Amino acid sequence: MQFDSVDAFFKSGQALVVKGPVALILIEDSVEVDSTLRHHLDAGFKSVIAFASDDITIAKDLRDRVHRVTFDPLSDAALETVVNGTIRIAGPNVWLYYCYNAEYLFHPFCENRTVGEMIAFNVEERRDTILTYVVDLYAGDLGQHPSAVSLEDAHLDKSGYYALARKDRWSNDLERQLDFFGGLRWRFEEHIPAPRRKIDRVALFKVKPGLKISADHTFNDPEYNTYACLWHHNLTAAICSFRTAKALKRNPGSTFDIETFRWHNSAQFNWHSQQLLDLGLMEPGQWF
Hints:
Layout: E1 2-3, H1 6-12, E2 22-26, H2 33-42, E3 47-52, E4 67-70, H3 78-89, E5 95-100, E6 103-106, H4 115-124, E7 129-139, E8 154-157, E9 162-167, E10 173-181, H5 184-187, E11 200-206, E12 237-241, H6 243-250, H7 252-255, E13 266-268, H8 273-278
Parallel strand pairs: 1-4, 2-3, 2-5, 3-4, 7-12
Antiparallel strand pairs: 5-11, 6-12, 7-8, 7-11, 8-13, 9-10
């Protein structure tokens, strides 16, 4: 199904978000569009909806499986427009997920368990959200891959991640809320605006009336921003993303300062959930 504008989708696309989980993918450029869509189709989402401008091409074999909405993801407040608008038209208790192109969702045991199975377990734990960490990927050889994007030569940081207490406007610690940092946004923070340095994102969540997301990836319901429930730790997931790497190499203000993203704590990414679990970049909680 295709929609010629985001308003047309909000007006007549309700049938696509009656049952979840639903993936909303904002396609900012032509980098790894098809691999991103295929990855999330294979993950088990009921609907995959791509928000892209007219100049973006999607492979023929995907056009009948992916719903397309003509939209500019680089426009002001694009994230809020897409996510909050979809929340308003979604069916009750539908789970939504959002990401950008060249980003790939991994969850514990994803090689043999679907995203729907993970959500079902999370619902049993009385949780309405799943916290995800955005794990930066980057090409190991920028000479061979000057855009910093390569699925075959993908690397990630195996250490250097940390969390700080999230504060309210009066500098009090917020209950069960942390700001997480690491990856390229930490190592090259001089090129990253401070509000964009966090790597935590509540990318999987259950819709409810009045729910809204902000540009900083937090919701207007404080409980949606927590990393765990009151009684024990919960599972988390990871979004393995080339988005920061390609931006750093595309931006004239940073590209000439970066000869390589590799350092002594780089590791080849093997595209398997066990590596992320072993590195502590996501947790299974009580899901075995």
